[in-house]
Amino acid sequence: MDFKNKVVDLVSSQVDLPKDKISQLIERPKNEKMGDYAFPAFVLAKTMHKNPAEIAKETAANLTSTDFANIQAVGPYVNFAIDHEKLISQTLDEVLSEKEHYGDQKLGEGNVPIDMSSPNIAKPMSMGHLRSTVIGNSIAETMKKVGYTPIKINYLGDYGTQFGKLIYAYKRWGNEEDVKKDPIMNLFKYYVKFHEEAEKDPKLDDEGRAWFKKLEDGDPEAVELWQWFREVSLADFKRIYKELGVDFDSYKGEAFFNDKMQPVIDELKEKGLLHESRGAQVVDMGEDENPALIVKSDGSSIYLTRDLAAAIYRMNTYHFVKMLYVVGNEQAQHFVELKTVLKKMGYDWADRIHHVPFGLITQNGKKLSTRKGNVVFLDQVLGDAVDLARKQIDQKNPNLANKEQVAHDVGVGAVIFHDLKNDRIENFDFDLDEVVRFEGDTGPYVQYTNARAQSVLRKAAKMGQEPNLSNNSLNDDWSFSVAKALADFPRIIARSSDKFEPSIIAKYALDVAKKFNKYYANVKILTEDEQINSRLALVEATSIVLTEALRLLGVNAPKEM
Ligand code: ARG
Q1: Which protein residue has the closest C-alpha to ligand 1 atom 5?
Q2: Is the confidence at residue 371, as pLDDT, over 60?
Q3: 237 belongs to a structural domain
Q4: What pLDDT is recorded for position 431?
Q5: Ligand 1 in contact with 157 (CB < 6 A)?
Q6: Which residues share a beta bridge with 363?
Q7: Over the chain, what is the mean pLDDT?
Q8: Is 478 in the same domain as 335?
């Protein structure tokens, strides 16, 4: 039950303001004794030519509702105090009957392609690609929960001049067995070697260019090698995706758009948008802005042109209602250009495109860079996290059944949760020990809280007791604090989907876990009195919400750990 909406409805019956405006104005009084929601009346003082306290008083006097224990004016505020018992019983009832569908809602519909992960072939997947993968995946799950049809697209970086260099490097220094054994590691080694050698001998760059030209002209050897590199790299990436539990609806990468760029260039020309600037073809971005590069002076196409072709292709294929690009903030300008050029072409649907940027992951405060070879291998990060989780489980619960699966869920879940718990735009430093801690603001803490709830339910079942709301309602402050948090879940999901911000759900899960742990510490749940079944209902409802919140983040919730 959404009490805030009720407050909005009540206020709107009395004052002349649009509902969304009222909704923005509603506050949570700092002191809970003052009520649960407050409407500040001073915004009306000017239009109504009255003093705010008087407006508050009159408004409060005109309002009655059975959902609130008390509605009264306090100074310039109209305060609303929820009927605690009612909130608890209605919320728990709703969660228990809707189960994992609690929080489902219809905020929209239609296809939403999400361009996410998109690593580059023959290079290790970076921390940035990891972020894009887990943020994109969580947004996809959340969009689905509110009615949309997400389409997860992995726009692989599988084309470009670097493949000419790689082909040359492979033929010169590489061998098949090594690539088969550890594709990305070795292909990347050849690529780094190429750059080292090219510094000493600039002629190598010509060799690389020549092989790229062959690739473009369809030379069978070049094409075959390129396809092979793509295939083995993708197999490597898929291993990581499997660990993360993420899959994709499309792997149409950059190469797929090779033959779809010329039509875009022609269209730009036809529409009079293209002009020459220092030998290159560009589109003007307006005063004070650098023009957007469409064709380079050597005739080769570029990133933006490919993305234009891809966006148009996706519109024609999916007729999307929104399209998201989950890509690092450093590419912000690129997406501004993409949208601007589409708009200039007359495509109003460009407004449906959102760049969903995120910050950098650093290590010991330093930026990680693939080019310099100081890369983090993600398999290793995930493997280390699972090892650490296993160690902790060995200490806390050595006899746990299916320990391997739980260690995996906790280790990988910890990495994902850590990535999602801060506003995505923030940069953060990666410290594995901190990520996998069982206490503090971590994924394992939330998982552990859920496992604790499950353990209470198991114990109760052995006593012949089960969750049931029918007999006795709860009215204590600890229960109220948990139930009120559970009642917020639908609104949290709505906000997260609206802002494309998984951290809202992650922070919420931490909040629910903390409140539940306070409850657990202060209330004897398994005492066999007349309220035991109601308390078990609260425990089960908490577990349902925590499990579903974690699922929306892409994190598994083991029942025991
Ligand atoms: N492969 C690119 C990179 O690693 C990311 C691609 C993002 N998506 C896009 N449509 N441009 O930087």
Answers
A1: 118
A2: no
A3: yes
A4: 85
A5: yes
A6: 366
A7: 93
A8: no
Q: How far apart, in whole angstroms, are the C-alpha atoms of residue 377 and residue 124?
A: 7
Flag whether pLDDT at 190 surpasses 70: yes
Does a structural domain hold residue 33? yes
Question: Which residue do the tokens 């409805």 mark?
Answer: 9
How many structural domains does the chain have? 3
Q: What is the mean pLDDT of residues 490-514?
A: 97
**pLDDT given at position 377:** 75
- Determine the residue of 234, 329, 331 to mutate for testing ligand 1's pocket, defined as the one with the most ligand atoms within 8 A of the Cβ atom: 331
- Are residues 395 and 338 both part of a single domain? no
Question: 327 CB under 6 A from ligand 1?
Answer: yes
Q: Residue 328 in contact with residue 126, Cβ under 8 Å?
A: no
Q: Are 139 and 326 in contact (CB under 8 A)?
A: yes
> Which of 358-367, 448-457, 483-492 comes out lowest in average pLDDT?
358-367
478 and 518 Cβ atoms separated by less than 8 Å? yes
Mutate which of 115, 133, 155, 368 to test ligand 1's pocket (most atoms within 8 Å of Cβ)? 155
How many beta carbons lie within 10 A of that of residue 357, not counting itself?
18
Query: Is residue 24 a part of any domain in this protein?
Result: yes
Query: Of 335, 363, 391, which marks where a domain is finished?
Result: 363
The string over 535-553, giving b where at least 16 C-beta atoms fall within 10 Å of a residue's C-beta and e elsewhere, is bbbbbbbbbbbbbbbbbbb
CA-closest residue to ligand 1 atom 10: 307
CA pair distance 401, 454, nearest whole angstrom: 15
Same-domain check for residues 264 and 131: yes
- CB of 362 within 8 A of CB of 430? yes
Task: Retrieve residue 340's tokens.
Answer: 């601007």
523 and 460 in a common domain: yes
Radius of gyration of the chain from Cα atoms? Answer: 28
Q: How many Å lie between the centroid of ligand 1 and the Cα of residue 323?
A: 15
What is the average pLDDT across 305-328?
Answer: 98
Contacts 24+ apart (CB under 8 A), 303-306: 303/334, 304/334, 304/337, 304/338, 304/341, 305/261, 305/264, 305/265, 306/254, 306/257, 306/261
Task: Tell me whether strands 353-356 and 323-326 are parallel, antiparallel or unpaired.
Answer: parallel
**Cα angle value 368/369/371 (rounded, 5°):** 165
pLDDT of residue 287: 85
What is the rounded distance in angstroms from the CA atom of residue 455 to the CA atom of residue 112? Answer: 39
Instruction: Please report the pLDDT score of residue 510 as a whole number.
Output: 98
Please say if the pLDDT value at position 471 is more than 70.
no
Length of the chain: 561
Task: Give the structural domain span for 186.
Answer: 111-268+300-363
Whichever domain contains 195, its CATH number is 3.40.50.620
Asked, for residue 104, whether it belongs to a domain, the answer is no
Residue 368 has pLDDT above 80, yes or no: no
